[in-house]
Design a protein that fits this description.
Two copies of one chain form a homodimer.
Chain A: H1 15-29, E1 36-37, H2 49-61, H3 78-89, E2 100-103, H4 106-112, E3 121-126, H5 130-138, E4 142-147, E5 166-170, H6 182-195, E6 198-202, E7 228-233, E8 246-249, H7 258-270, H8 276-285, H9 288-315, E9 319-321, E10 327-331, H10 338-349, E11 351-352, E12 354-355, E13 366-370, H11 375-395
Parallel strand pairs in A: 1-11, 3-4, 3-5, 5-6, 6-7
Antiparallel strand pairs in A: 2-8, 7-8, 9-10, 10-13, 12-13
Chain lengths: 396, 396
C-alpha cells in the first residue's frame, strides 16, 4: 500500500487538548473555584420547540411502512433545498434549487470540496479556522496566508500583483468576529474574477449579523455567481452542532457549469445524503415558527456578546467582533503571549478562553472569547476578566 | 482555478435513470398493469420499535439544556463504539474501541478512505458495486478487475504473480449474493500480507449470513488485522438507509499504526461526527430488544430471498445468492443481453429488475433481483418471472 505522503506534513494540533489539560490541573488544585469558560465554540441552548416537534414527527414517519423513508436524494430532499432557496430569496439572492446541496455540516463540505481541484495555490486568512489549513496540507496544495491584523481590522484585502487558485473567506470571521462590508467583499469578488480564482465563502455565522447593511451571503455581491462557492450550516443558527446539517451553494456559472456537475457527482458517489429526520428538523428551523424561536436563541447569545463587547470597550481593552458575531477577539495585555495570558487568566480569574496563536501565527498576542455560554456566568466571567486584565495592564 | 482532471474520466452512469425511463414508458402504455419491482436496492420495512423509542428519547434530550448534545466526538460516541465492539466480540473478534470509527454510512467511508493512499493500483471485483470504480477514477488510481463468473461462483480468487496496493472485497457480494468461505477469505488475507496490499472489506450485508460456518467479518480470519479495513453499516441490518449511520474498523496493526492515526486525523478534520440522535438509535439497534426485532425484519427479507431462490432452482434457472444474501444473481436466458432480458421481462411479466451489465462488463448476460420488497408482491412477481423466462428459454 502507498500512503498519502501529505498526511506526514500535518502538524499535530494540541490546542484544545492542551487547554483541557491545563483546566484539569487547575480544577485539581482549586476544587472550589467558580471556573467559567468563555472559550466554548459550541452552542449550549437546546433545540427550539418547532424543531423538536418536527423531529418527533419525522421519527414517527420512520415507524410505519407507508411513511418510512429509505435512501433519499444525495443532494438533499427537495423540501429542504426549496426552504433554503426561500431563505436566500428573503435576502434578495436568487438561487436555483439544484445549486443547493444539503450535507452533514459545513466542515465536511469545506474539506471535501478540495477534491474537485488539483495542485492549487490557496490563500487562507491568518488568523483563521485551522481546518482550512489542514485540508489543504492533506490535498498537497501550496498554502499562502492573507494576514489579518489590527490595521485592517482583521479583514485582509486582495494582494495586488499576485494570484491564487482558491481563496478562503470567513465572514463573520472565526476567530476574529470581523465582518466584511459589501464594498470589501466586492473587492474580493472582483479580484477573484480578474485572476480566475474561486472563493470558498464560509458563512457559518451569518445568522449573527444584525446590521442590515452588512452582507450575510457572498451572493449578495454582483459577480459572485461566477467565482464563489458558499458553505453554510444549521449548527450555529439553529443549534445543530450535534444534529449535523449544512448546505453548500455551487452556482451554475462556475467553470462553465462544470463545478456544479462535479460536486453533484462527488456527492452522489461518496455521500448518501443527510439523515431524513435531521433534514425534516432543519426545514422546521427555516419555517416561520422555527425562525421566530431561533431568533430568540441567537438574541440570547448576542446579548452575551454585547456584554463582553461593552465591558471590554468600557475598560479600554482593544478587540474586534462581538457585535455581528458570536466571537470576540481581544488583544492580550501588552507583551503577553496568548498562552501567558491564558495561564494568568485561568490562575487569577478562573476564566478559560482560547489562545489566539491556535488560529495561526498572526493570532499570537490575541485571545478568543465566545458568546455561546450561559448568560449569568458570562457576565460574571467577563467582570473578573476585565479586573484581572486591567490589573496586569496597569502593572506594566 | 485548476479542476481535478480525473473527474473528466468518469463515465456518466445512466443505469437507474434508464430503468426509470423505461418503467415510466411502460406504465404510460399499460396503466392497469400490476407492475412489481424486484430491483429495489433499498430497505422497505419501517424502523423497529426499540429503535424508534430510543430515537424519541434522544430527541427529548435535545429539547432541554441539561441533556442537550452539541458537537460530539468526530469518531463517534463511546456508547456506540462500545456497542460495536460487543457486536464483534459476539463473533469472537476482539477490537479496541479506538479502532472503530462511526460515520454516516459505509458509502462515505469507502469513498473517503481512498484519500489516505496515493497513486495506487487497485483490484476491484467485476461485477461489483459501481462506486468502487468511480471513487478510484476520481483518485486517479490504476484500476484492475478480478473477474467473477459462473466457474468461480462469482468469487474471484487472488491472481498469482501480480500485486496491487488496494483490494476491494464485498461479501456477501453486491450484486452477486456470493459469500466467501473462511478458507477463501484466508487465501485473500494471506495474499494481501504477502504482497503488501490493504483489503477494503465491505461487510454491508453481513446481517444476512445465516450459515454460521461463513465469516461475517474479515477479522474472523487470522492475519486480517495486519492487512484489512472493514466497512459496515446499519443500513441493511437495521433499516438505516435514510437514517445514515455506519462504521469503519481500522486496526492498529495496519501500516505500523499509521493508518488508524491517519483516518482519525481525516475524520477529525473533514467530518464532525454522525448525528447524536442517529447514533442513539443505532445503539438501540445493537441492544438486546433491537437485535431481536431487527432479526425478524431480516428474516422477512430472507423469506423473500428464499422464495426467489427456490422458484429459480425449481425452474432450473441458474443463479447465485439468495441464501445468505438479499441479492439473487441470475443468468439471462441463453443469448440475451441484460437489457434485452430487462425489456422482455418488463413487457411480458410487468416485473422490474436490474441489468447485470450495470455492475461491470462481466455482468453482461446476468440480472440482479433483490429481496427487499413486499413479501406477497415478491411471490407474485417471481412466479410471473419464472413463467416468462421458461417460455423464452424453451422457445430458443
Amino acid at each position: 500500500m502507498k500512503l498519502n505522503p501529505n498526511y506526514a506534513k500535518l502538524n499535530e494540533s494540541y490546542l484544545f487538548a492542551d487547554i483541557a489539560a491545563k483546566v484539569r490541573a487547575f480544577v485539581r488544585e482549586h476544587p472550589q473555584a467558580d471556573l467559567i469558560s468563555l472559550g466554548i465554540g459550541d452552542v449550549t441552548r437546546p433545540l427550539s420547540p418547532a424543531v423538536i416537534c418536527e423531529l418527533n414527527a419525522a421519527a414517527h414517519d420512520m415507524a410505519a411502512e407507508e411513511t418510512f423513508h429509505g435512501y433519499g436524494p444525495e443532494q438533499g430532499y427537495g423540501f429542504l433545498r426549496e426552504a433554503i432557496v426561500r431563505h436566500y430569496a428573503a435576502k434578495g439572492v436568487v438561487l436555483h434549487d439544484d445549486e443547493v446541496f444539503i450535507g452533514d455540516g459545513a466542515k465536511s463540505d469545506l474539506g471535501n470540496m478540495t477534491e474537485l481541484f488539483s495542485e492549487s495555490s490557496v490563500l487562507l486568512p491568518d488568523p483563521g479556522y485551522p481546518a482550512y489549513y489542514d485540508v489543504n496540507v492533506m490535498a498537497g496544495n501550496r498554502i499562502h496566508f492573507a494576514a489579518g491584523h489590527s490595521r485592517n481590522g482583521f479583514k485582509p484585502m486582495p494582494p495586488s500583483g499576485r494570484r491564487f487558485d482558491i481563496i478562503y473567506i470567513c465572514s463573520p470571521g472565526n476567530p476574529t468576529g470581523a465582518v466584511y462590508t459589501r464594498e470589501e467583499l466586492k473587492a474580493w469578488v472582483d479580484y477573484a474574477r480578474e485572476t480566475g480564482a474561486v472563493i470558498f465563502f464560509d458563512a457559518a455565522y451569518e445568522a449573527f449579523v444584525h446590521d442590515r447593511s452588512l452582507p450575510t451571503s457572498v451572493f449578495e455581491i454582483e459577480g459572485a455567481r461566477e467565482c464563489a462557492v458558499e458553505f453554510c450550516s444549521f449548527s450555529k443558527s439553529a443549534g445543530f452542532t450535534g444534529m449535523r446539517c449544512g448546505w453548500t451553494v455551487v452556482p451554475h456559472e462556475l467553470a462553465g457549469g462544470a463545478l456544479n456537475k462535479m460536486w453533484l457527482r462527488r456527492q452522489t458517489t461518496k455521500f448518501n445524503g443527510a439523515s431524513y429526520v435531521v433534514q425534516r428538523a432543519a426545514a422546521a428551523a427555516l419555517g416561520e415558527q422555527g425562525q421566530y424561536e431561533n431568533r430568540k436563541i441567537i438574541d440570547y447569545y448576542m446579548r452575551n456578546a454585547r456584554v463582553i463587547h461593552d465591558a471590554l470597550t468600557a475598560a479600554g481593552i482593544r478587540h474586534t467582533g462581538g457585535v455581528d458575531s458570536p466571537y470576540i477577539w481581544m488583544r492580550c495585555p501588552r507583551g503577553m503571549t496568548s498562552w501567558e495570558y491564558f495561564d494568568a487568566l485561568l490562575e487569577r480569574a478562573a476564566v478559560v478562553g482560547t489562545p489566539g496563536v491556535g488560529f495561526g501565527r498572526r493570532g499570537e498576542g490575541y485571545f478568543r472569547l465566545t458568546a455561546f455560554g450561559n448568560a449569568e456566568k458570562t457576565a460574571r466571567a467577563v467582570a473578573r476578566l476585565v479586573d484581572v486584565t486591567l490589573a496586569m495592564t496597569n502593572r506594566k
